[in-house]
């Protein structure tokens, strides 16, 4: 245990010292974390031997996703949804449902032996995009502002939208022999989504009231105030889970309301939470590389790799292209938006969650999800900087 802790601490120190140098190159942070976990883990050098069971790995992944969902929702500028020809709204309301449908239909062709509901789960796992993996695009000033903002808002909200879809499918899957699937969905909406939404709204409002009272009476200190919103994110998640609701929905809804209520002060208050979620993300990616990647690699078939490639290309590009019909965007800009839908943390967390679910096609679904993330980390990481710079040159004023 102490050797693992020393290895992780040494890696974090080295990366923190050279982060600017490393991230200015073609390799993204998640790619480096994943490769470090793979190389240090049991599959290669074996200096990192994490003794983490599925329950521990799932708790880490779920807590990381809850913090990311809360931060993304709180940071989301909903006014941007209708700006720039409604780009984020088009991607979320047209592109995302079409992506889910395309992933399911192509799954029927590639994996005819896999049950229909499990194919729908696979499509849902691979639909959300990752803002962290697309950081070199959404933070690159060379990329036109409408494109950056559109992709950033899309990646910040689509994982929260996919969570209830995933939970609904799991509800149906775990009770597949039920004679009343409609009643199951109604119960799910009332219990999982209802409790999660109410918990998120109530806790966000109460914490905002406490924060406002403390601010007016000067009871706060700058350091401890930064723990308010991270604590709220964890409280929303844990309270909803304890009450039988969805912690992810609670974190997402709580983040949306907190972002509205706290206004301009939210950016300062979210800083510590974002740093904490970044640390958890690093641990998740390293463990993903050390434990999950070798397992998925051993089970991957040519069909799995081909579907993974299709998920990053046809399944993403065609729906986004359709969603952008009627806009004045050029051909290359549309292709750029369609290509940069990297799969990352949400897909990893969803896949880890499925490891505890009795699936008929577990050896197909989880390797496919992991291989898709692997390809995404590599291909999107290598293409982000060169294509962003090219797009920026094309949009320079003449």
UniProtKB/TrEMBL annotation:
Entries under Pfam families matching the protein: Na_H_Exchanger
Q: Where is the Cation/H+ exchanger transmembrane domain?
A: 10-387
GO molecular function per UniProt: antiporter activity
Q: How does it sit in the membrane?
A: Multi-pass membrane protein
Q: Which coarse location class describes where this protein primarily resides?
A: membrane
Indicate where this protein resides in the cell: Cell membrane
Gene Ontology BP term (one): proton transmembrane transport
Q: Which UniProt keywords apply?
A: Antiport, Cell membrane, Ion transport, Membrane, Transmembrane, Transmembrane helix, Transport
Instruction: Identify the domain of life.
Output: Bacteria
Q: State the Gene3D superfamilies in the record.
A: 1.20.1530.20
Q: Which GO terms describe its cellular component?
A: plasma membrane
Q: What InterPro entries would the database entry show?
A: Cation/H_exchanger_TM, Na+/solute_symporter_sf
Task: Give the protein name, as stated in the record.
Answer: Sodium:proton antiporter
Q: State the organism named in the record.
A: Pseudomonas xionganensis
